[in-house]
Specification:
Blueprint lengths: L20 E3 L8 H10 L4 E3 L3 E2 H6 L14 E6 L3 H14 L3 E6 L4 H5 L10 H14 L4 E6 L8 H13 L4 E5 L10 H4 L7 H10 L4 E5 L5 H7 L5 E4 L1 H5 L7 H4 L10 H17 L4 H5 L12 H11 L8 H7 L4 H6 L1
Parallel strand pairs: 1-2, 1-9, 2-4, 3-4, 4-5, 5-6, 6-7, 7-8, 8-9
Length: about 350
């Protein structure tokens, strides 16, 4: 079943990218190499950067805003809480060509809290609103907020509703809501992704109470069937670790979610398509493993998948590893012979 995006009385900016399906920002995972790889599997899925802090952009020695044009539509997730710094970084991001910017109000790690951003900002909705306003004053691309349904003991519906209302007052039109609360003390970031119970109904209720908002839901979603079910209640669905661990999930997004029946690449074709990119990136200083590590799950559940992962894992770390290692690993997949005959 193809999901048609519901029309309502809302008057959203025409600049919004179609968020019916997006891949979540994941720290240390969704870098530019991962996003290039994912884009080969889906033309329409919205891709998010891993969280980048304002401090890294303003004071860091590296280019933290680099991305490949082929990744678009791509959203920069920004971590910070100083309105002036957030606005400055938003302007830089727009100049670099990002399609949108998302404010991180969901990460519960101690390191993020110490930097005064992430989920702890749910307790300071006006500060988040000030960031939204300052950023919108500087850019024309959309500014969204990714948040949780609550933090610690502030986890009733009224708390979430008040937070969302403050975002509405700041003219924020798009929210991504992880349907779990976050424990700021006592749980690791990993535990915060699993232990607090999911409450999808609370996100659905926010959409009912704020029909003018573009609402995406996130948390515990593993199949496109589940994506379709959620799209009956919200505007978009964000999938995280399942899209990373089993990237071929993305290969059906265009047809099932967006109604685009273009020819789908096989995983073998994706490997071959990645070779020129890896060669080009290695001439610029990237190591083979920096890119290939994102491809370990490409043949998830298929014959030869374990051998594919083992060979890449054992030899991909070596400084001598070259793109040809992918072809060697591909020989472990039985379907290759059928594809080339």
């Amino acid at each position: 079943m193809v999901i048609d995006k519901k029309q309502s009385s809302k008057s959203l900016s025409t600049k919004f990218v179609d968020h019916r399906f997006s891949v979540a920002p994941m720290l240390d995972w969704t870098d530019k190499h991962c996003r290039y790889f994912h884009r080969l599997l889906s033309k329409h899925a919205v891709l998010y950067t891993e969280m980048v802090t304002t401090g890294a952009i303003i004071h860091g020695s590296g280019d933290y805003l680099a991305f490949n044009e082929e990744e678009q539509p791509v959203v920069l997730q920004l971590g910070g809480s100083d309105p002036q710094q957030m606005a400055h970084c938003a302007k830089l991001a727009e100049q670099r060509g990002y399609d949108a910017i998302n404010i991180n109000v969901g990460c519960p790690s101690d390191r993020v809290q110490n930097g005064m951003f992430g989920a702890c900002l749910m307790a300071q909705p006006q500060r988040v609103a000030d960031c939204v306003k300052a950023m919108q004053d500087q850019v024309t691309i959309p500014i969204s907020v990714k948040t949780r349904i609550g933090i610690d003991d502030s986890d009733d519906y009224q708390f979430l509703q008040d937070f969302v209302q403050t975002m509405v007052d700041a003219e924020c039109q798009q929210l991504v809501i992880h349907a779990r609360k976050a424990w700021l003390k006592g749980l690791s970031p990993k535990e915060n992704r699993d232990i607090p119970p999911l409450n999808y109904d609370r996100v659905y209720q926010i959409k009912r109470d704020f029909p003018q908002l573009d609402i995406s839901i996130n948390g515990g979603i593993k199949t496109l069937t589940q994506v379709q079910e959620h799209l009956a209640f919200v505007d978009g669905v964000m999938v995280g670790r399942e899209a990373y661990a089993n990237p071929m999930l993305l290969s059906s997004v265009d047809s099932l979610i967006y109604g685009d029946v273009s020819v789908v690449r096989t995983p073998q074709q994706v490997v071959l398509d990645m070779l020129p990119y890896i060669e080009q990136q290695m001439t610029q200083g990237a190591r083979f493993w920096h890119i290939a590590r994102h491809m370990l799950g490409l043949f998830q559940g298929m014959p030869g998948a374990r051998q594919w992962r083992r060979l890449l894992s054992e030899q991909g770390h070596l400084t001598t590893a070259k793109p040809a290692l992918l072809l060697q690993a591909l020989q472990k997949i039985p379907e290759l012979e059928n594809m080339t005959n």
